[in-house]
Amino acid sequence: MFQIRIHGRGGQGVVTGAEMLSVAAFCEGRHAQAFPSFGSERTGAPVVAFCRIADQAIRLREPVLEPDCLIVQDPTLFKVVDVFAGLLGDGYLLVNTNKSFAELHLDATVNRLPKGHAVIVPATELALKHVGRPVPNAALLGAFAALTRFVHIDSVRRAIEETFPGKVGAANVGAAVEAYEFVLSQQHAASAA
Question: In order of start, what are the domains of the chain with their CATH numbers?
């Protein structure tokens, strides 16, 4: 079973992102579940959502305490929430930012993960470019597909299109595909170095 925890703020599409990720897994014939954990339910408040993907039925119903992957939609949360709690030693880290890990003071955390398991993606910028709104969830799903190879970008595309039909879906797919290609280019550059 692969477990994902998504940290963000209300209004960033955290819950919808987890749901779309579970749909992408269903598109590949896997079992999946997605569910949120809310504190104060208001725009800007910290929100956490969880997703599990497995090849057999999932019987767990509790929050993801030891994630295989962390997706951080808002890097300001590093100062207010213990985002890294339980992250497995061979886990993945995906952060929505245009800053480097050094600028975020995350070098020590990133260096504990296997090489290539942590990436930054300017998902909000991609969302603004394609969708016209600062909702980074779809872009981060494309980045997740490239980083982990746990779901395919075509499945992410289908999940987005099912969630947002028409022009909104096409715009979100554009953000997801560009984020996917961004991560692949980062990985290619790192392997060439």
Answer: 2-192 (3.40.920.10)
- Report the C-alpha gap between 102 and 154 in whole angstroms: 33
> Do 170 and 164 contact (CB within 8 A), yes or no?
no
Neighbours of 24 (CB within 10 A): 28
Question: Which amino acid makes up residue 1?
Answer: M
Average pLDDT over residues 91-115: 95
- pLDDT (tens digit, 9 = 90+) per residue, 130-156? 999 999 999 999 999 999 999 999 999
Phi, psi for 86 (deg, rounded to 5)? 80, -5
Two structure tokens written together for 151 = 């779901």
Angle at 29 between CA 27 and CA 30, to 5 degrees: 105
For the stretch 50-87, what's the b/e string if a residue is b when 16 or more beta carbons lie within 10 angstroms of its beta carbon?
A: bbbbbeeeeeeeeebeebbbbbbbbbebbeeeebbeeb
Contact 144, 21 (CB under 8 A): yes
- Structural tokens at position 54: 């497995």
**What tens digit of pLDDT does each residue of 29-64 get?**
999 999 988 655 666 788 999 999 999 999 988 999
